[in-house]
Structures are given as C-alpha cells and as structure tokens.
Amino acid sequence: FLMMGFRDGELDDIIIHMNEEVLNQYNLIGQDYIDGQSTVFNGKEDWGRQKLEEFYGDISGKVIIDAGCGHGIDTKIYIESGAKVILSFDPSPFMLDFAKNQITDSSVDFKLGKYESIPFSDMCADILVGRFSLHYVKNLDDAYREIHRVLKTGGRMSFLVPHPIDDFSRKQSKE
How many Cα atoms are found within 13 Å in the side-chain-facing hemisphere of 19? Predict the structure, then answer.
C-alpha cells in the first residue's frame, strides 16, 4: 500500500497502534489545518513558542527531536536557531509528507512515528520538544519510556499542550 510517498508496509505498525481518529483527522483535513494555523498566528505573538524557547534556551549545535512535527513550522525554526540536527517525526503521513516537501535542509531527518515508539536511536537527542502533540498520546507510560530512551543523559523535554479543562469543556468527557 502506497500513501503519500511512503513504502509498502512502512505505515503498518503506526496505523495499527495509534489513535485512528487523529490519523484520519490529519490525513483528511491536513491542508485545512495548515491553512488555518497560518491564519490564526498571522501577525500575532506566539506566546507558547516563546515559553518553549525560554525553557530549552540556546539550541545552537544541539540535536533536537521535533515530536509530532506536523507541517514542519517548528522544524524550520530549529534550523534557523542553529540546531545541529533536527529529528522530526509525526504519525500523519499527510503532515509528514507536507513537511518533507517544505524542508530540504540536510540537517533534518523526517520519520513516520509516534511517541510510544519514537523512530530514532537510543540517547540521540539533547532536547525533545512536543508542541501540541503530546495530548494525542493514549499511553503516556510508553511515551515517557521512549522519551527517556532517546534523550541523552542530562537531556531535556519540553511540551506545550492544551489545558485539560479546555478539552473537557469541548468534549464533555473526563477521558
């Protein structure tokens, strides 16, 4: 099965184990999401990104994992900020393909993947950043084990997630 430029079988493990609702959402409405993001943040201060940058600090010469890279806007920022290598992954073939087509910098390695099985080697990164992606994870224990596995000793992780009350107010569910 060939989807968005990925080889036969490459998607199998990810599709079987991930939240199909999320996968379908981004594969079906990916372009609308991308267009909406550029409208929402056009000319506005992105305080969430500023807070993440304050936390992880100077990334010059660092290896960064962009967890749930989506359409690649943060990956571009890491390149511009001097990261040595950016390891970007996303579970959506549409979003990952879009990012790959936008960014051709040789310091970036894009992979199809999810938090519960991060597609990079042990102790490979100085910093893992997840901007609006961790809240899709169903098994946080597995995700945190994987984050620990890929971070170097002394490595840091930084996340930006919606507040749980926002999710509750929209879904009316405690899940």
Answer: 15
Contact by Cβ (8 Å): 140, 167: no
How far from 59 is each of 2, 22, 80, 114, 132, CA to CA, in Å? 36, 30, 10, 23, 20
**Computed over its alpha carbons, how large is the radius of gyration of the chain?**
16
Helix orientation angle between 93-102 and 20-41, rounded to the nearest 10 degrees: 40
For residue 157, the 8-state DSSP code is: E
User: Do the beta carbons of residue 71 and residue 102 sit within 8 Å?
Assistant: yes
- Assigned token pair, 168: 């509750």
Amino acid residing at 77: I
Instruction: Quote the pLDDT of residue 15.
Output: 41
Average pLDDT by stretches of 10, the chain with 175 residues: 39 45 64 64 66 80 95 92 96 90 95 94 96 84 96 91 64 61
Query: Residue with structure tokens 């079987």?
Result: 16
- How far does CA 52 lie from the centroid of its chain? 14
